[in-house]
Write a structure and sequence with these properties.
By secondary structure, this protein is of the alpha/beta class. Helix content is 27%, strand content 25%. Strands 3, 5, 6, 7, 8, 15 and 16 form a 7-stranded mixed β-sheet that branches. It has a 6-stranded parallel β-sheet with strand order 11-10-9-12-13-14, with helices on both faces. It has a 3-stranded antiparallel β-sheet with strand order 2-1-4, with no helix packed on it. The N terminus is likely disordered.
C-alpha cells in the first residue's frame, strides 16, 4: 500500500481511465492510460474499488448537462462523479492538519467514498479531502459506489426539497431504477405510502420489493387514472419524477391542490417547454433541483451521508446492484442504461 508522498514517485504514477474525447454517443468513450497528478495540500490519492454509473454521466457525455470548462479545449476528460475505494496517499501536511473547512483527517488505508467529484472513471485519482466521507463497516465498496450520488439525491428529494410527513402518499416515477429503489424505501421509512410507476412487470416486482405499496405499469395503464383511484380522487401532494418527457404531463395531473412536482431526471428525454400558467388552477409548485447544490456545504454532505448510512445499517434501505460491468466497458454500460435495460444500481469495476 502507498503511504505518504515520500513512499512513491508521483511523476511515475499512471493509471487506466475512461476518457470522453468529444460530445456524442458511447463511442466517444475510450479506455486509456493517463498520468495521476501529485496530491496537494487538502487532497488525497484514492485507489478505486468500485465506480457508480448514473444518468448524469450520459448527460455529460451527450452535452445535455454541460461540463465545467467545456467546450473542446479541455477534452479529453475523465467521466463519472461517484466512487468508493482506499486512501493510498495524502498531500503535504494533510495527515497532520485538517483541511481548511475543518473536515476529518484522512490517512492511508482509510475506506472512503464520494458522490459529487467529476473524474471517477479511473483506477486511481486525486480527490479533494473535503468531498470524501469515511465508509462505515456496514457498507462495502460496491454498495457505497452504487449509493453515494443516488442516495444523496434521495435524501434531498424527500428530506429537503419536499419534507415528507408520515401518512402522506407520494408518486415515484421510475421506481425500479437506481434513485427510485432508494427513494421509495426512504419514503416508506419516513412513514409514507409509495405509488411507483415502472415500465415492465419485471420492474414492477422490483419496485414492490423496494418500498412501493402500489405499482403502476405506465406503458400499459393510465397512471393518472390509477393514481386518482388509489387516492380516492385527491391526488398526491408530491411527485418525484426522474423519467422526464414520458411522464411529465401526467405527473402534473396526479397532483393535489398545492402539490409539488419535482423533476429531477430525464431518463425518457427532456421535458418540452410548456406554459407555466398550467400550474395556476391547482396552485402547483414545480422544482428542478440538483444534488450538487444540496451538498455543497460540508455539513450538508455529512448530514446526507450519515442519514443514508444509518438507514442502510438499520436495514431500512437496501441498495440493489442490478448490473456490474468492467470499468473498461463503460461504453456498453452507458448503452444498457440509456436503452433502459437496467434495474436498480449499476457499478463499474476497475
Amino acid at each position: 500500500m502507498i503511504g505518504h508522498l515520500s513512499d512513491y514517485m508521483p511523476q511515475e504514477l499512471r493509471t487506466m481511465a475512461v476518457r470522453m474525447h468529444g460530445l456524442g454517443g458511447p463511442e466517444v468513450l475510450r479506455w486509456e492510460e493517463v498520468d495521476v497528478p501529485e496530491p496537494e495540500r487538502g487532497e488525497v490519492l484514492v485507489r478505486h474499488e468500485a465506480v457508480g454509473l448514473n444518468y448524469a454521466d450520459t448527460y455529460h457525455r451527450s452535452g445535455l448537462y454541460p461540463l465545467p470548462s467545456l467546450p473542446a479545449v479541455t477534452l479529453p476528460t475523465i467521466m463519472g462523479v461517484e466512487a468508493a475505494g482506499v486512501v493510498e496517499a495524502v498531500g503535504p501536511s494533510a495527515a497532520r492538519q485538517p483541511t481548511p473547512d475543518g473536515t476529518a483527517i484522512f490517512q492511508p488505508g482509510d475506506r472512503v467514498a464520494y458522490g459529487d467529484v467529476r473524474g471517477a472513471y479511473c483506477v486511481r485519482r486525486v480527490v479533494p479531502a473535503n468531498r470524501l466521507v469515511h465508509l462505515p463497516d456496514c457498507v462495502d465498496f460496491e454498495h457505497a459506489a452504487a449509493a453515494m450520488l443516488k442516495g444523496m439525491t434521495s435524501w434531498y428529494l424527500c428530506r429537503r426539497t419536499y419534507r415528507l410527513r408520515a401518512g402522506e402518499t407520494v408518486l415515484v416515477n421510475g421506481a425500479a431504477g437506481g434513485v427510485g429503489t432508494i427513494l421509495s424505501q426512504w419514503c416508506k421509512a419516513l412513514g409514507g405510502t409509495v405509488i411507483g410507476t415502472v415500465g415492465s412487470a419485471e420492474k414492477g416486482c422490483i419496485a414492490r420489493e423496494h418500498g412501493c405499496e402500489h405499482v403502476i405499469l405506465y406503458e400499459e395503464e393510465d397512471f393518472v387514472e390509477r393514481v386518482h383511484e388509489i387516492t380516492g380522487g385527491k391526488g398526491v401532494p408530491v411527485v418525484f419524477d426522474g423519467v422526464g418527457a414520458a411522464t411529465f404531463d401526467g405527473s402534473l395531473k396526479c397532483l393535489s391542490r398545492f402539490g409539488m412536482m419535482i423533476a429531477y431526471g430525464n431518463a425518457s428525454g427532456v421535458v418540452a417547454p410548456f406554459n407555466i400558467l398550467r400550474l395556476t388552477a391547482k396552485c402547483l409548485t414545480l422544482v428542478r433541483p440538483s444534488v450538487m447544490a444540496h451538498v455543497q456545504c460540508r455539513a450538508d454532505l455529512e448530514e446526507a451521508t450519515a442519514e443514508l448510512f444509518g438507514h442502510i445499517e438499520a436495514d431500512r434501505i437496501r441498495i440493489t446492484i442490478g448490473q456490474r460491468f468492467p470499468l473498461a466497458e463503460a461504453a456498453e454500460a452507458h448503452r444498457a442504461l440509456e436503452s433502459r435495460r437496467t434495474h436498480g444500481c449499476t457499478v463499474l469495476l476497475p
